[in-house]
Design brief:
elongated; 25% strand; 14 helices; Beta-Lactamase; Heat Shock Protein 90; 3 domains; alpha+beta
Length: 519
């Protein structure tokens, strides 16, 4: 336990080492740790160990004259035994101590202040220990000190007084044990625990463990996060009754089979189960995922595991199932629309013209799909739907007058309006107002005041102006059927087609509920 300048100090003097038998007697063995009087040799005595031998004889006659045995004990010991004077200066070090401290020349450090060999908090603790021993007290501390060769070590230190015949301290005994490996293991364990704690916190996982004996759960431990996730509160002692009552009744049947599988002789010992915890302590109902490893023990099995909140994942899975169902429904609807378009379009002999019409209608359907996809199929603004449907029919001079308040359509309404506008615009180009350079179309819509249920009267008008004189057709084509049936049905309203001499007027009248209430 020496470092720095102490190892470079060379001081030679008389070897005043105390007989090793005396050191054994100096270690207090009484329960209250009172110092045991150990007489020190007096100057001028012919036999400085005489009084010690008398005491050893009373303790164990076999030790008398067996200095070789005691020397072997101290030499083989990994402890560093030292004797200090009352000022805390180093007077003696055992052979085993010199070995663990890597001391090759004890005379170079003999007489040096022992507390100076310690660093940081150890220096303060060593000074306090010397003061305690000087006052007849024992002391203990753990600290850091380098060996004579500069290698860092960590030590567990006992310090106690050596009492003279008058019962007063004459010297100080220090026994230091190298606990560097233990200390490093402790530090590694703390670092590992810290990493685990940080990882669990980052993953928002709680830790729990339970003991199973003869199929019965006999103990339960949880950290604060697990307590909160599993129906308790931080700091609360968990109980099996409290846990069982916190599990959703529909999920309780999942727990026992999961435990049985983990405990089965042919199983892998892994408990893995997902279940719901009821709302508690202002916490909402949540889904949790518990996973644990079964560890066989002499008196049963111990489960050590984690639990984490998977509510967001479960909600996402539920949304995905809904979206998948909606997608399947929409695909079927789209295929039905395509099939209807095909069957109606290809009636007649003019295949080239029918093919062109079919392609045009599919493009209109695709444009409506693009708008809805961009909005995640939640709906679309009416003006966006109108502009998209009429885009292919716009010319250098504006032929469409569009006027109306902001309004969001449902996905179904947006699709049917897109198809209806495509049919109206195509018909206007062929036979109506847009077949003349002077023709134009006025598109307008309005909303009435909300009623008690939040519904509003919706009126949508397509009015062709400046085109050729029109007459009511003798047969109903695909376009008119889309407008009269699909357009009206998807808005849950009615459509009126007025073939006025100065231009077609198409009017949709419907009661619009708030978007979330529309079918």
């Amino acid at each position: 336990m020496v470092s720095g300048h102490q190892w470079t100090r060379l001081e030679h003097g008389q070897n005043a080492e105390v007989p090793l038998k005396r050191l054994l007697m100096s270690v207090p063995s009484n329960p209250d740790k009172r110092p045991v009087p150990v007489p020190m040799p007096q100057a001028g005595n012919a036999d400085p160990t005489a009084s010690l031998k008398q005491e050893l004889k009373a303790a164990d006659p076999a030790l008398i004259g067996n200095d070789a045995l005691l020397a072997a004990v101290f030499s083989g010991s990994g402890d560093c035994v030292k004797i200090l004077d009352l000022d805390g200066r180093l007077q003696f070090m055992s052979d085993g101590g010199k070995r663990v401290m890597e001391v090759e020349n004890f005379s170079a450090i003999k007489g040096c202040p022992w507390p100076d060999f310690w660093v940081d908090e150890g220096n303060i603790a060593a000074r306090e220990a010397v003061e305690d021993a000087r006052n007849g007290k024992t002391a203990h501390f753990v600290g850091s000190a380098n060996t004579a060769k500069g290698n860092p070590r960590y030590w567990d230190v006992q310090v106690m007084p050596i009492l003279g015949p008058d019962g007063k301290p004459t010297h100080i005994l220090s026994i230091s044990r190298d606990i560097s490996e233990i200390r490093l293991a402790e530090l590694a364990l703390r670092e590992s625990e810290l990493r685990l704690k940080l990882a669990l916190a980052a993953a928002q996982m709680g830790v729990w463990e339970t003991h199973v004996v003869n199929g019965e759960f006999v103990s339960l431990r949880r950290d604060d996060r697990a307590n909160l996730l599993l129906g308790g509160m931080p700091g609360e002692a968990p109980t099996f009754e409290g846990f069982a009552s916190s599990v959703h009744p529909d999920d309780r049947y999942l727990l026992q089979p999961a435990a049985d599988r983990a405990l089965a002789d042919d199983g892998d010992g892994v408990l893995d189960v997902e279940y719901r915890i009821l709302a508690h302590h202002d916490q909402p109902e949540r889904w949790v995922h518990a996973r644990a490893q079964a560890i066989p023990m002499g008196n049963g099995t111990r489960f050590i595991g984690t639990v984490r909140d998977i509510s967001e994942r479960k909600e996402a899975e539920a949304r995905q199932r809904i979206l998948s169902g909606e997608l399947q429904h929409r695909i079927k609807n789209s295929l039905a629309i395509v099939s209807a378009i095909a069957s109606q379009t290809f009636k007649g002999d003019d295949v080239a013209e029918r093919k062109k019409a079919f392609t045009s209608r599919l493009e209109a359907l695709a444009q409506a799909h693009d708008i809805l996809t961009a909005a995640a199929w939640k709906g679309a603004l009416i003006r966006t739907v109108i502009n998209s449907a009429l885009g292919p029919h716009r010319s250098a001079h504006e032929v469409f007058e569009i006027d109306g308040p902001d309004l969001e359509l449902s996905a179904k309404q947006a699709l049917s309006m897109g198809l209806a506008l495509h049919e109206l615009a195509t018909n206007a180009v062929k036979y109506g107002a847009l077949s003349k350079a002077s023709g134009r179309v006025r598109i307008a819509w309005s909303l009435g005041r909300p009623d008690q249920a939040g519904g509003q009267q919706f009126t949508f008008t397509w009015h062709e102006i400046g085109g050729p004189s029109v007459a009511t057709p003798t047969a109903s084509g695909f376009g008119s059927r889309v407008i009269r049936s699909v357009f009206a049905a998807d808005f849950e309203g009615t459509v009126h087609l007025d073939y006025a001499p100065d231009g077609l007027v198409c009017t949709l009248t419907a009661r619009l509920l708030p978007l979330g209430d529309r079918s």
